[in-house]
Amino acid sequence: MRSWLRGLGRRVYRRLLEREIAGTPTHVAVIQDGNRRYARAQDEETTSGHREGAETTERMVRWCAELGIEELTLYAFSTENFKRPPEEREALFDLIAEKLRAFAEHDEVEAAGVRIHAVGELDRLPERVREAIDYAEGQTADNDRFRLNVALAYGGRAELLTAARRVAARVETGQITPEDIDVSTVEDALYDGPGHEVDLIIRTGGAERTSNFLPWRASGNEAAVYFCTPYWPEFSKVDLLRGVRTYESRRASHRRTRARRALALLRTVQDCELDEARAVLRRLRDSVPERTDVDALLDRPDETGDRPN
């Protein structure tokens, strides 16, 4: 009975969140943390946590499509993950290759128009993973309604270093000059990956850091960040909706801040113009010996009730 009531309460809360949300981000990026800790909590092998996390990934794609989110980037394997024990690393590579192939062949993926794209230093991955990437990308190449980026052998610093080297090489060969370098130059040198700037980063597992994930595309866009405690295998649609609500709050706060700045700028300009006008009127008054209408203008209080000095 208690479990039924909890389930009912959760469904009602989820529907409430869905009704509260007025808009959704275009691009969500997820740091899927907690697979190993989840497995340990269940007294299971680490590979079990990764496998259950892969099931959450499939659900996440469906939830994003339902909400109208156009792009999802998943931090599946970082450059730091190469330091993990070989047996764990190899098991994870096997799972990634298996899931990429299975996902690319899934009827739901085809129906949702999902296009799969891998991002990162892909040449560092084992051949079986690279072959699975080629297969998944080729199988979904004609889909164009939803973009799923899988970050593999990815690190934000490594991406920026690679971009810097590419730009430097173009300068060295005379293709561009240092003065030609702008935002678009750097963006063209980044990994061929996400199509949109990141609007929202979600991290599961309780840690409050973004772990070197998409720094150019997220920081430059001032992406909202939502940290939540569930391990990735436990992540639910309610957690996603809470993340979207954080994005909406961040966007509303940004709009209010911009409005306040614009108002302050307008008032500053108005004050400057008023001071300049009064200076002209004083010069006119000084050139006329008798009291005129100019004196009346100068004596008139402004909108704040203050008289000019």
Automatic annotation (TrEMBL):
InterPro entries: UPP_synth-like, UPP_synth-like_CS, UPP_synth-like_sf. SUPFAM superfamilies: Undecaprenyl diphosphate synthase. Pfam families: Prenyltransf (PF01255). GO terms for biological process: polyprenol biosynthetic process. It catalyses: geranylgeranyl diphosphate + 7 isopentenyl diphosphate = tri-trans,hepta-cis-undecaprenyl diphosphate + 7 diphosphate. GO terms for molecular function: ditrans,polycis-polyprenyl diphosphate synthase [(2E,6E)-farnesyl diphosphate specific] activity; magnesium ion binding. Binds 2 magnesium ions per subunit. The active site is at 33, 81 (proton acceptor). It comes from the Archaea. Transmembrane segments: none annotated. Substrate binds at residues 34-37, 50, 78-80, 82, 84, 203, 209-211. Keywords: Magnesium, Metal-binding, Transferase. Mg(2+) binds at residues 33, 222. Its EC number is 2.5.1.89. Its cofactor is Mg(2+). It is an enzyme of class 2 (transferase). Belongs to the UPP synthase family. Catalyzes the sequential condensation of isopentenyl diphosphate (IPP) with geranylgeranyl diphosphate (GGPP) to yield (2Z,6Z,10Z,14Z,18Z,22Z,26Z,30E,34E,38E)-undecaprenyl diphosphate (tritrans,heptacis-UPP). It is probably the precursor of glycosyl carrier lipids. Homodimer. This is Tritrans,polycis-undecaprenyl-diphosphate synthase (geranylgeranyl-diphosphate specific). It comes from Halococcoides cellulosivorans. The gene is uppS.
